[in-house]
Amino acid sequence: MSLGNDDDMDLADRMLLAKPKFLKSIHGGGDNASVASMPLTTANGDKCYETPIFSKREMTLRIPKEYNGNLTHLVVCKNWMVCLLAAPPPSSQVTLFRFFLPRVMPPGEISLEKYLAGYKIGKLFLDYTGHHILVSLIPKSPGLSADFLYIHGNGTKVRRIEKFKDHEITSVAFNYDLGNESTTGPILLGTSKGLIFETELTLEADKPLYRKQVYDVGLGRPKYDVTGLEFRHVPNAPNQYIVVATATDCILTFQGNLRTEERTLQPIFNGYINGTQSHGYEVAKTDMKYSVLQLNGEPNEKYPTQWGWLCGSGLRHGEVAQSSIKDEKFLLEDHLIPLDKDLEQRKHLSYEEKRLNVPKAFVLTAYHVLLMYHDHVTGICLLDQSIVYEEYFTEKSGKLLNIHKDPFTGVIYLCAEKKVFNFKVDEERRNIWRIYLNMGIYDMAEIHAANDEENLDTVLKSKAQALFDDKKYEEAAKIYAETQMPFEEVCLKFIDLPEKRPIITYVQKRLETLSPEADEQLFVLVAWLIDLYLTEINYPGRSKEEKHKWQVEYDEFMLNFSVIKCYRANRTAIQDLITQHADDHNLAQFAIANEDYDEVLQQHIEAEKYLQALHILQQQKNIELYYKYCPTLIEYLPKETIELMMSQGRKLNVQKLIPTITTIDSPVHIAEITKYLEYCIYNLGETYQAIHNFLLRLYAEHQPGKVMEYLKNEGQDITLVHYDVNYALLMCMDFGIQKACVFLYSLQKLWPAAVDLALTFDIKLAKETASKPRDEKVKTKLWLKIAYHEIKDTNDVKKALDLLKECDLHIEDLLPFFSDFEKIDDFKEPICQALKDYNHKLQELQHDMEDVSKQAERVQSDLQNLRENCIRIEVHEQCNCCETYLLVKPFFIFACGHKFHADCLEKLVVPHLSSEQARKLTMLKQQLENMLAQSAAMADKSNESQYKREKVKQEIEEILAADCVYCGLMIETIDQPFVEDWDQVNVDWE
């Protein structure tokens, strides 16, 4: 039997193929579709049809031809499809087929006929791996107990699970974490009596590993189906698990922690059994004998994002918490889609009639739900409950059995008695933005319309208009700026408002969206904003705080890159606009922004705002303006101006400033100018002579006490001082600074003039000056001047004798200054002492001459001994360097006893030679080789050529054998480093 045929085509298909090719193709299937597409209106007013969100396609199940009958059950998971096919009466044959959908191959088949004697099939379950199949069995006649079968997908063996005798299995919660192809792991089974069991089924074992009742939902009632059961591990919470269980009239939620080493689910329910935890228990009014639970998530994700429960009141749905849960409310939200608004309306109907009016099953998608009724499928949007799809099925398909979604692929399957369909979901979020927009949820509408500029613009316009209607003008302005709404139209909305903040916000936002090339539009917006800001800043009656707030915002606006570019290109127009507002502050700021500091400074100085001008001068970087405006500013703000000049340091050329500030002569100005000159000389090291001369003049005129301090600081080397010595001497003479004059005379080596001047006011200074010359004759003359000054007209012998102790004069030098009638007795003692000194010096000279004669004799004797000295060399003696016999090659022997071959000595000495010595040695060796080669070629044995060679050899020996390399050269170079150029060493090592 083959269910479905790809070659079958009904009238609707042919009509669709016959339509114009520029319209999108929509496959309506083999049954009548009442909602096949949605009409859209184009810009020209024409209607076209877009591809529907849901479209079905009939599947071809390759069931062997020998089987016939109708489908009764179908489940799909991980592309594994399991279905049951029942042969028509009177045959009782029921066959289980297992397909792997990606491959075209015959299905696996298992006959269940011998297991169904007295039973009918209740439900079919398939685990998430697609390998573990459970079949619930319901007894047809009294006396039999409910049972269920376990089948592993890799084999054909069917096992009856005897441990669950008397329990009709109505729901199963498979283990997504521990389950695999060989074992289900711990799973939960719900029964028709409201009991929840835990068990584990494996491929190897013929019976469950255990059976354990973990909870009783029915509380002892004989009939209370557990219609839905789900068990999941919470992401980002290592040990937390949730369980959802439903009955016909209630939904319960459980949560608990399981340790990793525990292979049981019992701890989840313990807190609810002993009363320490209360699960979420919600009752729904119902007259239905069934309910359906579905959890939906992204394909191939084990944890769901949505929940849905079909019960008597309708379809309840919401989101599932995605992180650690602190209470039982992990089923977030609870939206209701009423499937029959008037429950009283169907009270008089029979149960079968009621079933025709309510859905039997459903499937959740991200934004929609597909509800399966007895003869049609309806697609409803979860947000606004609008019907987006509805399709009825004829008797050709048979009764609809179930609608199911593969959690790993997201494909939706619809099972009818004679056909199987799958549904294609095409851009189901396409109109979600419009639904949110109609609901007034603008943020969500904006998110869903983000990929379509036209739709997004529609959302933003509606959002902005809603904010405008609520008088939230500033927020509305921000949104309007993001829309494509005409600029003039939006401005007209805000222009008449008394508050200008919204229009400023809107214009500023639109300014940000302009391209840099739109120069004209940019200028218009910038000019308008400047006008608006200045109007608000200078509005009459504005408080100081409000004015400051507007000013800060205006300043930030003017710092925008595009604004700067605009007003620099239109400087005159913007300047005229600011001038019309009579705002001096912002006019100056505008000039600063355009770096027109000259104009700003001129304005401030003309307005006598010298402090503001000083601040502007400090902010700008043009040094030339310092030379132009500092002379003016220093007149009114001497201290502040000098501090500003000092803060610029070396940036200022003092030579350009000095001529303009020398004309100010008030005490305050002079003090500040002096401070600046001192800063330039002592801190900046200024050497310009005019600067030093000017400071020296100020010192001489106003602070004489600092002249000597300055002169001493400059030093006593006339070639190193920075002032003009003659100019300094003239200044000191004009202002009577005699000590400085003496210093300057001494600096010029004018010792007589210096001593003569010092004798006029300070004898001590004169003596110090006379002691400075290095020439003894000059020094003697100076001291004679002092002696003459001290002795003349006084004939004070004591003073003359004291003077002899301070200098190198002798008594005979002073005698001419005394009168001829002075008594000799007064000079007797110093004369005798002088004679004794002369006698002592003569004796010392005689003794020195005798020592020199003796040393000359010893040297002559040593030279004579050296001529007769010799050194004896044994045959076995070795070179101290290479340790081979010494006599085999030319060698050198030193007085210390060290012996070296000539070539060994050269190797030892050359590394210690200077570059000049090494170069000279190389040159001499080359010269000697040339002489030897020339003599050999010409057979020249003359005395003259031999003499030249010996002379060159002697020079070579003077370099190599000047001293013993061990006893002299190495000792002398012991403090030299082993490596002198570490940079070169690093390069070599690399």
Attribute tags:
single chain; 5-stranded antiparallel β-sheet; elongated
Draw up the topology in text.
Elements: H1 11-18, E1 33-35, E2 38-41, E3 47-50, E4 54-59, E5 70-77, E6 80-86, E7 94-100, E8 108-111, E9 119-126, E10 132-139, E11 147-152, E12 158-160, E13 169-173, E14 187-191, E15 195-199, E16 211-216, E17 228-233, E18 240-246, E19 250-257, H2 266-273, E20 280-283, E21 292-296, E22 306-311, E23 314-320, E24 331-337, H3 351-357, E25 361-364, E26 368-372, E27 376-381, E28 387-392, E29 400-405, E30 412-416, E31 420-425, H4 432-439, H5 442-448, H6 453-469, H7 473-480, H8 487-494, H9 501-513, H10 519-537, H11 544-558, H12 561-569, H13 571-580, H14 584-593, H15 597-606, H16 610-619, H17 624-636, H18 638-648, H19 654-661, H20 667-683, H21 689-702, H22 707-714, H23 725-734, H24 738-747, H25 751-759, H26 763-770, H27 776-791, H28 797-806, H29 811-814, H30 828-868, E32 891-893, E33 899-901, H31 902-909, H32 915-938, H33 943-960, H34 965-972, H35 982-989
Antiparallel strand pairs: 1-28, 2-3, 4-31, 5-6, 6-7, 7-8, 9-10, 10-11, 11-12, 13-14, 14-15, 15-16, 17-18, 18-19, 19-20, 21-22, 22-23, 23-24, 25-26, 26-27, 27-28, 29-30, 30-31, 32-33
Helix pairs in contact: 4-5, 5-6, 6-7, 7-9, 9-10, 10-11, 10-12, 14-15, 15-16, 16-17, 17-18, 17-19, 18-20, 20-21, 21-23, 23-24, 24-25, 25-26, 25-27, 26-27, 32-33
Walk me through the structure:
The chain has 990 residues and is an alpha+beta fold. It contains 35 helices and 33 strands. A hairpin with a 5-residue loop joins strand 27 and strand 28. Helix 9 packs antiparallel against helix 10 and helix 14 runs antiparallel to helix 15. The N terminus is likely disordered.
